[in-house]
Amino acid sequence: MFTGIVQATCEVVAINKKDGLNTLEVAMEPELREGLITGASVANNGVCLTVTRIKDDRVFFDVMEETLSVTNLTKLQVGSQVNIERSLTFGREIGGHILSGHIHTQARVCGLSNTSEHFNIELEVDKKWMNYILYKGFVGVNGCSLTIGATTENRFMLHLIPETLKLTNLDLLELGDKLNIEIDSQTQAIVDTVERVLAQRGLTDSLNSVG
Length: 211
What we know:
By secondary structure, the chain is α+β, with helices and mostly antiparallel strands.
C-alpha cells in the first residue's frame, strides 16, 4: 500500500527489454535505499513494482507485459524521471490517501497552464472513469495523491502547488503525454454500491408495477 506522497524522482539508467518483460534499472539516493530489500514493493509512477535486485545505487524492477499494456512505463526511456514512493510503513503519517499501486487507466494531457501564479493540468480520460472522478475528491496521478478540480464529461483539472512540482515529474509534462491513473478505492466502492442499489430498486419497482 502507498499514500500517494511521492518521495523523489529518480532516473531510469537502463532498460533491458525482452519478450513480454522489461527490466528497469533505477538510480536511487541512499536515503531511499535504506532498509530496502529484494522482494519489497516500490511505486514507480504509481505502479507497484517488486524489487528484483539491488546493486550499489541501482534498484532493479521487472515489468510484466500486462503492466506495460495498461501503464505509461512502456514509454520510459533511459534518462526518464520516475516518481518513487516506498511502501507504507505501519505507524507512519499518511498525508495523502491510500493507494494500491494498481493502475486503472491512463489520462491524456490535453491542457497545460503554467504562470507565475499557478500550474494547472487538464486531463482527458475515457468517459466511464468520470463516475469516480469527482470535484474535490482524490485521484492518483503518476503516483501522486491529488485533489480534483473542475470536471466535465470526460476531463478534469488539477491545480498543483510548487512543492508537488518540486518532488515529482509532473513539471516535465507536455501536451499529449499519458499519465497513470488510480481511482480512489473508497469512491469507487461507494459509487458502485449506490448504482447497484438503485438498479435493484428500479427492478423491484418495475416488477411491483407489473404485478
